[in-house]
Recover the amino acids of this structure.
């Protein structure tokens, strides 16, 4: 059996997991791929750092370009992260006619169009299953398994850190800041958690999913992102009482005006399966016109779950590396000549329902003022709760659920509400989706 030699850029958590699985399951993997797959060269920042894998038999270097330039290496596996040096190394590997496997969502979301064009010109493959939702084979499912369908929409919990925080806030009645500190202690959140809690990481992944779902170029710069830092324990409790769960969702929907591309906290009915995805787990719900709704669930990170997706990509590349380019799966699911530059819908044009929490003076007439403002803008109320003020407090919280309305009309209503003398502070607004 012939051998395929690969080079790793990065020997951290996922790199170590990749080495371990390739060694442990070598026989099974070679039976699937038709060839033996061996790591021959790897780059790491610190060669003396303790590792989770056995690196015997692997040439090690601190210079990742050594791996890319190694004439023995046929497939370069990029596991470094970031979109600066990683981009240069990937393009260099492609220029040398080498296939690439990457777990780098920022790289694909921001530079994928140029990378895929370069790969197509050189007749090589760039595979990126592990870039979205860790070990869940969601790229393969949308790109291949659902290829008969016209995808209508998709929605996903695609950041485990944010999901862990919201789950803990719900289950333990903990405040956001305390749960974030616990997530950092457990290693679920970085010291700087901005990418996770502000939705940037999820937007990278959503950009990729939307492109393969709708056959359009990657457009990360047009994604709307909103984080979970303003979600309070009170919001989580109110959502529960009303039969909803708050999840940090990435949502992309095809409409007559364009494609929605948005990441934000979302109330979803607790009866939905995706509403019951807790902790650090990920899930993606995809609606196809033929198959209907399909749900994909599993670990979104971790050494071996992510390495599982990386190695699956390596196997796919090995199977087709000698095949004609036209017989391979297109990078963005659709043939490159059929990729269409579809407009991304401005957030103000998006229609959805809303949860509103308003702190108002506990006196007659305030509720009438609020309903008047909403009514003047054609916003109808589905449900409302008026909470009693806490002892010694003069303000009461009013919780409203609205029917669907265009975002720009809701923005106008919120501005008008916040200008009322009886209103204290900002109106808390969380979008709602039925996902039905």
């Amino acid at each position: 059996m012939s051998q395929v030699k690969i080079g790793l850029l990065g020997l951290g958590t996922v790199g170590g997991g990749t080495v371990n699985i390739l060694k442990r399951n070598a026989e099974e993997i070679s039976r699937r791929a038709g060839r033996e797959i061996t790591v021959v060269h790897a780059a790491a920042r610190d060669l003396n750092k303790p590792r989770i894998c056995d690196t015997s038999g692997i040439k090690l270097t601190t210079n990742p370009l050594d791996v890319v330039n190694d004439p023995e290496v046929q497939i370069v596996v990029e596991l470094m992260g970031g979109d600066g040096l990683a981009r240069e190394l990937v393009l260099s590997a492609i220029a040398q006619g080498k296939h690439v496997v990457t777990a780098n969502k920022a790289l694909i979301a921001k530079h994928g169009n140029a990378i895929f064009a370069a790969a197509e010109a050189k007749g090589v493959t760039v595979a990126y299953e592990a870039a979205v939702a860790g070990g869940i084979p969601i790229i393969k499912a949308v790109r291949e398994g659902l290829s008969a369908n016209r995808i209508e929409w998709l929605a996903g919990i695609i950041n485990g850190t944010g999901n862990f925080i919201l789950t803990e806030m719900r289950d333990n009645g903990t405040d956001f800041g305390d749960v974030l500190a616990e997530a950092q202690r457990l290693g679920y959140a970085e010291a700087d958690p901005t990418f996770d809690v502000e939705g940037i990481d999820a937007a990278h992944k959503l950009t990729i999913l939307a492109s393969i779902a709708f056959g359009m170029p990657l457009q990360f710069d047009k994604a709307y992102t909103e984080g979970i830092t303003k979600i309070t324990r009170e919001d989580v409790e109110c959502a529960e009482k009303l039969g909803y769960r708050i999840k940090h969702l990435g949502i992309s929907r095809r409409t007559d005006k364009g494609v929605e591309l948005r990441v934000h906290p979302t109330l979803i009915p607790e009866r939905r399966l995706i509403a019951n995805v807790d902790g650090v787990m990920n899930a993606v719900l995809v609606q196809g016109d033929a198959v209907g709704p399909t749900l994909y669930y599993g670990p979104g990170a971790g050494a071996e779950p992510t390495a599982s997706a990386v190695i699956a990509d390596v196997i796919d590349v090995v199977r087709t590396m000698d095949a004609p380019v036209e017989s391979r799966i297109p990078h963005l699911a659709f043939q490159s000549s059929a990729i269409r530059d579809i407009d991304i819908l401005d957030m103000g044009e998006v229609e959805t329902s809303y949860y509103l929490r308003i702190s108002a003076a506990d006196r007659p007439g305030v509720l009438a003022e609020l309903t008047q403002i909403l009514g003047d803008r054609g916003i109808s109320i589905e449900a409302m709760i008026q909470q009693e003020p806490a002892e010694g407090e003069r303000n009461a919280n009013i919780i409203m659920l609205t029917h669907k309305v265009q975002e720009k009309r809701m923005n106008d209503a919120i501005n008008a509400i916040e200008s009322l003398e009886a209103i204290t502070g900002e109106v808390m607004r969380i979008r709602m989706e039925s996902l039905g």
About this structure: The longest helix spans residues 105-122. The CA atoms of residues 348 and 408 lie 4 Å apart. The mean pLDDT is 96. The chain has three domains: 3-137+303-338, 147-299, 349-432.
